[in-house]
Amino acid sequence: MDDQTRFLKDYDCESQWFKHSRTGADWIHLKKSDTNNVFMVGFQTDVTDSTGVPHILEHTTLCGSKRYPARDGLSIHPLNRLYCESNTIVKCDDLTVYPFSTENKTDYYNLMNVYMDAVFAPRLRRLDFMQEGWRLEHENPRDSSTPIIFKGVVYNEMKGALADTNSLFHTRHQQALYRDSTYAHVSGGDPENITDLTHEQLLQFHAKNYHPSNARFFTYGSFPLEEQMQKVDEKLSGFSSSSRHSLEDVPRWNEPKTIQAVGPLDPMGDPLKQSRVAVSYLTNSEKNLEESLSMRILVNLLTDGAASPMYTSLIESGLGSDYAPTTGHSQFACRASTSFGLTGMESKNIPVAIESIQYVLEKAAQTGFPENRINNIFHQIELGLKHRTASFGMNLGWNIIRTMIHGGNPLDAMDTAPSLAKLKSDLSQPGFLQNLVETQLLSNPHRLTYIMNPDAGYPASLIEKESQRLAKHVDALTDSDRENIKSDGLELLKLQETKEDLSCLPCLSLSAVKKQASFYPLKITQSANGIKQFWRETQTNGVSYVYLKWDVTYLSDREKLLAPLMCNSLTSLGTHSKSLGELDETIRAHTAGISASVFSSPSIDGDSPRDYLVLNASALDSNIDAMYNLVLEVLQTTNWAAYDNLNIALMSSAAGAANSVPNSGHAYAIKAAAGLLKRTCYSSELFGGMHQVEFLDQLLKQTEIPALAKELETLAKKMIQTSPLEVLVVSGSQSVDRHSHIHDQSFSCFAQSKPSTFSNSSDIVDFVPKYEMRNYPMDLGVNFTARSVSTVSYVHPDAASLKVLASLMSTHYMHRELREKGGAYGGGASYNTLDGVLSFMSYRDPPGAKRTLDAYERSVAWACEITKHVGNEELDQAKLEAFRNMDKPVDAAGEGLTQFQYGLDLFALQAHRDALFKVTMQDVERVAKIYLQRPCAMSVIGEKVSA
C-alpha cells in the first residue's frame, strides 16, 4: 500500500493515508494512544430512484455471509457474543458505513472478520430480502383466506419515518432542491417506490457498489496497523481493480423556483399555525475546505443564538415558533446547501417570512456582523477541539469517510489549524463576509422557496394511495403468483422459527471480561458555607465541567409538569441586566453553554426515590469566574416579565415535544407504561413523557402568559431555595482551588443558613400503582407499544438475573416475533436496573397493536420455560452484552456523574458485577416466573385501541 503521513497537532495523533495497490481501496489510519479502537469500512452508494435499495441492502447484508451463515449474523448475534461498544450502521444519501469500536483486541479482530465477510461475501437470499425489504404476504401466513398485504421491515420503518412532519418536510425539500441528482431520491426508500424494488436489482446494486475499489477504510487507536492491514489484505485477495465512479455534481439552476406542498396536521398544535417555509440555496462544493468552513461560520452568524439576525427577524418577531428543520448549513451531499426557514406559523405570514429572510441577507451584505459574535464562534470552536469525548475516533472516522467519498482530501479536512488561520486572515479583510453573502446567497440563482401547509386529510390520502398501490399489485397476480405468495410466506415463517446454529460466529470468552467494575472515584468535601462538594480530578484539556443539584422531590404534579419549561426559561428570557440576545452572546463568549433539567433518581435500594433539578455548565479554566457569574445571574435575576420571550419558549417547547414522538415513540411508550407502576417512573413521565407532551399543548392553548410567568418565577425560587445545593466539579487538578474559592465566596445564598419560606413536605403521598392500558391515538402510520412490570432495583440479588433475562428475551424471542414476523423496525425487552422495571417495547410497528400485545403475552410463557429454549452458551452471550453496556467508555464530562446523580458507589457497582458473572439459567427462569407474571401496565401510541 502507498502511504502519505502527517502529524495532526489539533488531535495529537499521526495520520496515514494508504491506497491498496491491487484494488485501489483507500485507507486512513489515525495512530493515537486511545484504548477505544475504531474500524470502519464505507462505500459510495448513490442511487437513481427511491426504492431504498442501499437501505434494504444494508439490512440484508446483516442476514448472514459466506463464512458466517447466520441470519442476523452481524446485527444481533455477534453483539451478544462480543464486547464492542458501538456498531450502529450509518446510511446516508450517498454512502453506507459499517463501523465498530472496542477496547478488546481479540474482539476487534473477530468483528473485523465478521464485517469484512458481511460486506464482501453476503448471502443476500431472496427470503431475507422479502423479510427486510418488502413482500406481498397474507395477513396470517398460515391462513390463505386472510387478505394479502404489504409487509417488510424497511417498508414499515420508512412509513413511520415519513409520518413525522419534520422528516417529511426535510425529505421533500431536499428532493426539490437537489432535483436531477442522486439527492433528489429518498435513499432510505419512499414507501410508494419501495414496492418496485426486485431481488435481482438488490444483487446488482451490491455487485456494483460493495467492491473493494469502491471502499474506504478507516482505523483509529492503539492497535498495531500492520496486523490490521494484513488481515484486510487477505480478505481482498480474491478481488482485482474495478472502476470507481465519482459522484456527479448537482445541476445548477438558472432561476429560482417555488414549490408548495401539503403535510399532516398535528392534532396537538394550533391548527392555524402549522405552516412551514424554507428559503434554500445550493452553495459550495464540499471539496473546497476553506469555503466550507467560511460558509459554516457565515450561517452560524446568521442563525445561531438569540442575538442572530434570523432569530430576531423570524422568531422573536412572533412570525413563527421555531426554525424550519432544514435551517442551517448542510454538508451531507457533495455540494452543500444553506437554508433559512420557519415553522409554526400562519399561512398568511408566509410572504412576510420570505421577505424577512431576504431583508436579513441584504442587511448582512451591507453591514456585516459584530466582531464580538465572530470571536464567540472561534471560542466555541476552541472548546469543541478541547472536549475529550469517548466517541472521538468514531466521529472523526465518519467525517473522514464522507470527505473521501465527496472527493475531498481527508488529511486536509482533519488538519484544521491551517484552515482556521486562513479564515481568520480572510475575516480581517474588509467585506469578506459581506461578499460571501452576496455571491453564495443573494446572487445565487439556485434558490428554492419551499412551502408546506397542513392538510387534515393527509394521513387518509396516504392510506388511500397505499390501498390503490396494493390493489394494483394484487390484481396483477396470476394463480401461480398467488401460490408462490402462499408458499413463500410459509417458507419464511419456517425460516424465522428455525433455531439457528450460531457455532460459526466468533465468541469472546467471559474470561476476557475484566472482573473489576469501572468507577470514577469522587472526593467529597464541604465548603466554608456548608455546601456539599463532589470533586473528580481528571485530564480535561483545560476545561471545567460543573453540575449544581437541588432535591425537588416535594413538588406537586403540576409543578413537575412545569419544571422542564422553567429549566428552559432560565436561558431563554434574559435577565434584569441583559436582554436575551446579550445573555446568549455572553454565555457563548465565556462558556460552552449553560442548561438546566429535571430528572428522577431512584435510590439504589428502591426505598426512597428522589427528584432533582440539575444545572450544568462548562468553560475553559481561564473563564471559570465568568462561568459562575453567569450561572448565578440566570438563577437569581431571570427576567420573568419578558412575556414575549416566554411565549416563544413555550411554543418551541411544545413543538419540540410533539415532534419528538414519531422518532422516539418507543421511549414515550415505555415511560407511559412504567409511569403507572412506580413513583420514580411517574415523575419521569411527568418530566418527559406523554403527560409532558399533552401538558405543553394545553398550556399553549389555554394559558395567559403573565400568569404563567408568575407561576414559573415562584417555582424557580422554590426549587433553588427549599433544599441545600450540592455541586460536582470535573476538572484538572490545577483548577480545583479556584472552584473551591468561588464556592466559598459566592454560593452562600444556596447554603440554607436560614429556614426556607416554602414548605418542604417530608410526608410525600404514597404512590398507588395502576395496572391498565394507556392509549395515545396519533396519525403516525405505525405504532409504538410497551408492556411493563414492576421488579426490583440495582442492589437486589435478582437484578443481575433480570438483566440477563431481558437480553435473552430480546435476542431469542422478541426479535423473531416482533421484527421478523411482525415487521416492526425494532422491538425487545429492556430492564431498567435503577427504576426496577422490566419493559417490552416495539418501534415503528405496523398497525395491529393486538398482534404485538399478544406476542408480549406469549413471551412470558416462553420465558417461564426459558431453559427449554436456550442454554449456557446463550447465557454467556447475554452476559457479554450486559458487560459491554456497563463498560462503555465515558466522556471526561461524565466521569463521576453516575455516583453524583444516582448514588451508585463502587460497592454497589462491584456487587452487581459479581452477581452478573454468577447468574445461571436456573436463576433466569426463576426470576421470569417470579416477576413476569405480575400485573402489568401497557401503552400504545399510534392507532386507537379498544378498552
Report on this model:
The protein has 947 residues and is an alpha+beta fold. It has four domains: 2-247 and 476-497, Metalloenzyme, LuxS/M16 peptidase-like (Cytochrome Bc1 Complex, Chain A, domain 1), CATH 3.30.830; 257-368 and 431-455, 2-Layer Sandwich (Cytochrome Bc1 Complex, Chain A, domain 1); 523-750, Metalloenzyme, LuxS/M16 peptidase-like (Cytochrome Bc1 Complex, Chain A, domain 1); 771-942, Metalloenzyme, LuxS/M16 peptidase-like (Cytochrome Bc1 Complex, Chain A, domain 1, 2-Layer Sandwich). The protein has 33 helices and 26 strands. The strands form five sheets. Strands 1-2-3-9-4-6-5 form a seven-stranded mixed sheet, sandwiched between helices. The N and C termini lie far apart (66 Å). Mean pLDDT is 93; it is low at 753-763.
Features:
Cytochrome Bc1 Complex, Chain A, domain 1, alpha+beta, six-stranded mixed β-sheet, 4 domains, Presequence protease, mitochondrial, 947 residues, seven-stranded mixed β-sheet, metalloendopeptidase activity, mitochondrion
